[in-house]
Design brief:
The protein is an alpha/beta fold. The protein is 42% helix and 18% strand. The strands form two sheets. Strands 2-3-1-4-5-6 form a six-stranded mixed β-sheet, sandwiched between helices. The model has no long low-confidence stretch (mean pLDDT 94). The protein binds 6-O-phosphono-beta-D-fructofuranose.
Length: 404
């Protein structure tokens, strides 16, 4: 009989998306009625050791005392994982850096009763690493340190891990994942790995349980049908932002992704105020289409003063690029990057909110909703409603909702 139980061993430096990936795998396996559990060394350390272990020297590979403590924690978790599979569990996910070859050889010796799949998470995106780090230092174990001290301490911890880090290379069953772009860089499967088809699919699928795609409130430019610019919200726009804040007050929104334009940030601010713990994260990736020489003009002015622009755009709106500006086609790459960053930073389980613009939102929507390219620039993006998307491997839900 083929063995149908599996160990998944996560590998990677801190803040590289290991836990997000582990949770995504566990939740999706559970959706398929497969018993899966995560064994996280960091969580166990925080529970078991009453003293604070957030200080950088605790991770120094030369600090014999702390190395012994960390090894003990790893061993407890490995034994727990083993017991779990001996009993009723099907997939045990070991979530830790498992950075050194030595540690992984030890795991292979100990977990010798079922196959092991190693999944290494990597990302070199500096902004993503820094933003994840800023979220990490909100853990209670950092409260005794200032923000700067916490950042320095966490960066030193990463350096210690880097000093012992060996990327996956010789492991028989290994996947190297770009965890930001949900893209597999390298894949080597030598044994029969149970559930591998499902697991592989989960790794490369974008999962969003509750994604809210919102357009900013009404602006002075909207009143005059002017495009681009950095206009602020009108009184009506501010009232729309307050209505959104009221609508979302009872939902937990830890992060609001906006563009770098005033109108999206002004829409996000009242929402943030009514939340307990919420951060606004402005991404250039979600800025509105850059209309180049036409920035600030009304559609009527473009038709009258630049008829060639008006006609060419009308003929092929998706592929048309404004002189010295952008087109839908040239927004594709940055919008995709923004979505990946927002999903990565939010993790698979909670609420995600993006507040952007008409063209930007069309491109975001088209990432989740199939539309022929020529129809994307016409997706309906009203100022007074938002889109709600829930997309998991088993279910896709797409709704337009009123908030007032
Ligand atoms: O009018 C608001 C706006 O967001 C402009 O800033 C932008 O150029 C435009 O909508 C995008 O819509 P369309 O591609 O239909 O012109």
């Amino acid at each position: 009989m083929t063995d149908h139980k599996l160990y998944i061993v996560m590998v990677g430096l801190p803040v590289r998306g290991k836990s997000v990936t582990a949770v995504k795998l566990r939740d999706n396996l559970r959706c398929d009625a497969i018993k899966a559990r995560i064994f996280n060394n960091g969580d166990l350390r925080r529970k078991m050791i009453p003293n604070n272990t957030s200080y950088a020297e605790f991770y120094d590979p030369k600090n014999k005392e702390s190395v012994a403590i960390r090894e003990k924690i790893a061993l407890i978790n490995l034994n727990r994982a083993k017991r779990y599979l001996k009993k009723s569990g099907t997939v045990a996910i070991i979530d830790a850096t498992n950075a050194s070859l030595q540690r992984r050889e030890y795991i292979e010796t100990l977990l010798n009763d079922h196959p092991i799949l190693f999944i290494e998470c990597i990302t070199d995106d500096k902004e993503i690493v820094n933003t994840s780090l800023l979220r990490k230092i909100t853990l209670p174990e950092f409260t005794h340190l200032s923000r700067e001290e916490s950042i320095a301490s966490f960066n030193q911890r990463i350096l210690y891990y880097e000093s012992i880090y060996n990327p996956l290379e010789k492991e028989k069953n290994r996947v190297i994942l770009d965890s930001l772009h949900t893209k597999i860089f390298e894949e080597e499967i030598s044994d029969e790995i149970p559930l591998y088809d499902q697991i592989r699919d989960f790794l490369v699928t974008d999962m969003v349980k509750n994604l809210h795609i919102i357009r900013h409130g009404e602006t002075y430019f909207n009143l005059e049908n002017r495009i681009g610019g950095d206009s602020g919200l009108t009184d009506n726009g501010k009232a729309q932002a307050r209505a959104l804040a009221k609508y979302f007050a009872n939902k937990d929104i830890p992060l609001i992704f906006t563009s770098q334009r005033k109108r999206t940030i002004q829409t996000a601010e009242p929402i943030k105020e009514r939340q307990r713990n919420c951060t606004i994260v402005p991404f250039a990736e979600f800025n509105e289409i850059d209309s180049g020489q036409c920035e600030g003009m009304s559609y009527k002015e473009i038709r009258e003063e630049m008829p060639q622009v008006f006609l060419s755009r009308k003929k092929d709106k998706y592929n048309y690029v404004y002189p010295e500006g952008e087109g839908y086609i040239s927004m594709e790459e940055r919008i995709e990057r923004g979505i990946k960053k927002a999903l990565y930073l939010s993790g698979p389980s909670g609420n995600i909110m993006i507040i952007a613009h008409r063209a930007a939102n069309r491109m975001i929507l088209s990432h989740f909703l199939y539309r022929r390219k020529e129809d994307v620039p016409y997706i309906y993006v009203p100022l007074d409603k938002f889109y709600y998307i829930s997309a998991t491997p088993n279910k896709k839900l797409f709704q337009q909702k009123r908030y007032q």
